[in-house]
Amino acid sequence: MKLKEAVSDRTVEQLRDDFQTKGYCLARGLYSETEVEVLNKHFEGLHADGGVPGFYTRAMEPDESGDILKMYPRFIHPHRFSGMARDYMTDERLRVILCAVMEEEPIAAQSMYYFKPPGARGQSLHQDNLYLKVKPGTCVAAWTALDFCDKENGGMMVVPGTHTSEINCIHEKNIGSYEGGPSIPVPEGMRLELPEMFPGDTLFFNGSLIHGSGPNRTKDRWRRSFICHYVGKNCESTADFYHPLVDFKGKDVERAATTDGGPCG
Ligand SMILES: O=C(O)CCC(=O)C(=O)O
Question: Domains of the chain (ranges plus CATH)?
Fold first, then answer.
């Protein structure tokens, strides 16, 4: 299927209904092919330059561990040094859907860019609000595919319906280590889903939804993605790692910061 054929005519109300029922919704074709290409080129350039001092450190050569992610780590908080990342994070199309699913004005907490090259490991099953510690309520992720994503290259997996479950603390001791630790078990009677995604599709999901991704088992297909996390305007506190928050006008926003969370994803 080509990108055009994958573009959904799902209304914002239908997306909101999906989100409320399943804990996630999939907005197809939110970004154009050109926008996806521009974003990928931007991050490829930052990577090729050897890193961004103070923000993005990468190994220049493979080491004997064979972990390709040492050469291609994810960018964390690129909106703090890249105007383009900040613009994508505060894009109006995201805001419209976030307002519908959150039922309040969103504020951005985090941006990330993943290369996930062939051979990269995946991310164990987890819930984002263990890390963001948003109170009251939870966070919402907007996960945009920048390549075609399926099981082979480690596409996103979700467990529909788990958005109403408690936060499982299995990963508590891994907070801050950038390693996911063991996977949260899929609750009895529920199952993992892996929605195939096209470049420019965005998956919105609740901070309690169990999700993760498998390894990229392909030889030649990358699985790049741009991921942002949001809190609601009425949020009172969130983990200090996410401060300052940023509103959709691009202005820094203050909320109480707690010391119990850490980097997510
Ligand atoms: O992109 C992935 O493989 C995992 C991302 C993730 O878990 C997250 O954004 O919370």
Answer: 3-53+67-258 (2.60.120.620)
